[in-house]
Design brief:
This protein has 433 residues and is α/β, with parallel strands linked by helices. The chain has 14 helices and twelve strands. The longest helix is centred in the C-terminal third of the chain and has 26 residues, at 381-406.
Length: 433
Amino acid sequence: MANNDDHSSKNQHSPNSVFESSATFRMALSQLESVATLLKIDLGILQRLSVPKRAMIVSVPVRMDDGSTQVFNGYRVQHSLTSGPSKGGLRYHHKVDLGEVAALSMWMSWKCGIMNLPFGGAKGGINCDPASLSMGEKERLTRRFTEEVLSIIGPRMDVMAPDMGTDEQTMAWIMDTYSMKVGYACPEIVTGKPIELGGCLGRREATGRGVTVCILEALKELGIKPSNATAVVQGFGNVGAITCNELAINGIKVIAISDRYGAIHDPKGIDIAALQEFVSKGNMLKDFPKASPINPEEMLMLNCTVLVPAALERVIHLENAPHLKCKILAEAANGPTTPEADEIINNSDIYVIPDILCNAGGVTVSYFEWVQDIQQLLWSEEQVNSKLYELMINAFRRVRSLALEKKISMRLAALSLGVEKIAREKIKRGLFP
Ligand code: NAD
């Protein structure tokens, strides 16, 4: 696929300068550059892969409940449109910025590539604190954002899904706003929506289920029985809570869990069903009476079989990486490990299941949802789960055998499969005009 250009050099005119102030974007770029070197990707193709195809920044004015007006910054970045419509979540978080969204959109491209899905990568975000917004404010924010990005979204152009701080209800508002604009019900404009609106059975659980498939496969390879394994999970939102549940169903003891307000620990194993019930009644995870509080940073360094970051980026870093005591690092969140930490972990015995493989179950079932909406037919949850299992296990095994064959890390192997697929498509399609 190659020429002999020097991949380590930065683009001279850096079309990426608007994104590069973000450490997360630089992290995504440096990963791409190391894969490009390994695969000897043509420099022109590398340049095209390094730059998001399209990025939109919008200001989103919202009438707040107290009558005042607040303006939020919103972003939608489409990294690649080569393989089909772009696909990716919408994040509501107070630290969202353009560079982070661009990095996440790039990772989505590689993820769709690994899973062989007919999508490019995209991501969106609004800089806000969703916990401080009322339902009405969130609805107005979501509808106005949808209106602002209307010209670049569409079922064949760009399809959103939930991410941190957004959920099925957010997708329902987007679907309704878009449908009102085009004049007919258009469920295929988003995935991860409520079942009543054309959502897919098993979508909400899909990411956590995919994470668990990967963990069980890694345990099998390491010869560890699930009943002898323990897990520590950072984050108790969609991905974290479902992963805890699936791990518990499979006999793995979850000994510590955190969320943004605190962390809890019980070496005998936390009763996940009881915790879920406790939290669903509006209680804080940190107040769960059947476990002890623990420092969230220290929690990451507990002795355990599997550590599952399922919240934010860059939480495994230079300071804590040398002190991890897990056997498996299952990256349920996107970008949880910094490149510096990655280097430390690569020189240890920790078995890494990289994010773009580990959490790919979500976009995979989003693809099933999109296909069902377009064809106007319904799959049963059994069909969804068995197809998810088939695609996840195939992807896991392809990544694992490449890593073993080439003697490279799981991350590099996963990135190679994802990047190579898109690079090949770009070569075949050629460059317009
Ligand atoms: P969510 O909003 O449902 O949950 C996020 C959780 O992280 C919450 O429990 C929150 O309290 C916790 N959290 C926030 N800051 C924290 C901190 N400093 N320390 C510990 N916990 C903290 O989000 P989600 O959908 O579960 O997404 C979590 C991660 O998984 C993100 O990186 C997201 O991009 C990734 N992901 C999500 C999906 C999906 O289908 N939802 C798919 C693929 C990847």
